[in-house]
Specification:
By secondary structure, the protein is an alpha/beta fold. Helix content is about 45%, strand content about 15%.
Length: about 400
């Protein structure tokens, strides 16, 4: 049976050339990068080279790159690191305040909830509109004198909407200037989760105007278990993983050299070919959107119609359950998702779609198709051939 993978927002296959670059560091150059002997120095050279390559892409200093095990760890360090440093230093008498959005990845949302519960932090969850875009004036009105962190994702993992990160940065820079004039000791930092953006969007941290930025390798044909957090020089961060002092003392543990080499290679590939691949993928995505909405009634495209990632098309299929669609499509050899792969095992309605103000009965019919560079219009044609039959069958037995 023909098998088609339409779930690239969940994970991607490792590129062959990336694997080739990783392989020597599994066996031949296997040393610990902290060791002084030749084996260790070979690993250290690979680590330093990879860090420099990534710094060139992000337009930052290599020392501002902290390697992690993936997007979730990077997000945890971005949220906990600076907030716990400010809490430790008792910079203000009030509880510290964090602003984030209602559509963030659980790695952000559950982390801020933990800080709220354990340390009494205040958290504001700013609204988005029906397309998933942050309301800039509302976000600005929510900044207070005890705000320590604003975290807004670069692009949403469920609906693909791209947020106006440089514009948000300008707002935060204005408040940084006010605090400096007022002599406030409390900084205000801006973090963006760029996990879904890494394969397609510009990651120049100076253009984006961020203090921290999270990336995960397996979202752009790199290895799983790899990621990084850019931390702007001068950002005070408390280490979350303590131990041997690796990664500038912020992330203890022997460095995963094969993974880091693969992460750098995959990111370089993605950024060099991102525009070309983005045009190809968006052409296939637009073909899907145009034809699916013609073939089936009661289909709603979610996310911004234009300001969106080239690879994600998210729909609500009325009068049907998402899990049933997923299973029936899988039986036809087509892999899709009902939303974020990190939480799709849950029967709870998508928090992202709830934030976009869709009713629960429609949210249960969510379908996310996330394309990759190998997907074709012919594969979309096969999907469009089998999917209407599945929808008709499921609607006949649906209680919705």
């Amino acid at each position: 049976m023909k098998r088609i993978y339409f779930d690239h927002a969940a994970t991607t296959a490792l590129d062959k050339d990336v694997l080739e670059k990783m392989q020597p560091y599994f066996s031949r150059h296997f040393g610990n990068a902290s060791s002084l002997h030749t084996f260790g120095q070979e690993a250290r050279q690979a680590l330093d080279k990879s860090r420099q390559e990534i710094a060139n892409i992000l337009n930052c200093d290599p020392l501002e790159i902290i390697f992690t095990s993936g997007g979730t760890e990077s997000d945890n360090l971005a949220v906990k690191g600076p907030t716990l440093a400010a809490f430790r230093d008792k910079l203000i008498s009030k509880p510290l305040h964090i602003i984030t959005t209602k559509i963030e990845h659980p790695a952000i949302l559950k982390t801020v909830k933990q800080l709220e519960k354990l340390f009494g932090f205040e958290v504001t969850y700013t609204d988005v509109d029906v397309n998933g875009l942050v309301n800039l004036s509302q976000l600005e009105s929510e900044i207070k004198d005890n705000t320590i962190l604003v975290s807004v994702m670069y692009a949403n993992n469920e609906v693909g909407t791209i947020e106006p990160i440089p514009e948000i940065s300008k707002i935060i820079q204005k408040y940084k200037g006010k605090r400096q004039k007022n002599g406030s000791k409390l900084p205000i930092y801006f973090h963006t989760d760029a996990v879904q953006a890494g394969g397609y969007l510009d990651l120049d941290v100076k253009k984006l105007g961020v203090d921290m930025l999270s990336i995960s390798g397996h979202k752009f044909y790199g290895p799983k278990g790899t990621g990084l957090l850019y931390i702007k020089k001068g950002t005070k961060v408390e280490a979350i993983n303590t131990g041997g002092g690796h990664e500038n003392g912020l992330r203890a543990g022997t460095e995963n050299i094969p993974g880091i080499v693969g992460l750098a290679a995959a990111l370089k590939n993605a950024q060099e070919s991102g525009d070309e691949i983005g045009k190809k993928v968006s052409s296939v995505r637009d073909y899907l959107i145009k034809n699916l909405t013609k073939k089936i009634d009661g289909v709603i495209l979610t996310g911004h119609p234009e300001i969106r990632l080239p690879n994600i098309a998210s729909f609500l299929i009325e009068r049907i359950e998402g899990e049933s669609m997923l299973i029936n499509l899988d039986l036809k050899g087509i892999a899709v998702s009902t939303g974020s792969a990190c939480s799709s095992g849950s029967l709870e309605p998508s928090h992202v779609l709830k934030a976009l103000n869709y009713p629960p009965e429609k949210i249960h019919g969510s379908l996310r198709i996330s394309l990759g560079k190998e997907n074709t219009k012919e594969e979309i044609d096969y999907f469009l051939e089998v999917f209407p039959e599945i929808v008709d069958k499921l609607r006949e037995i649906s209680a919705l």
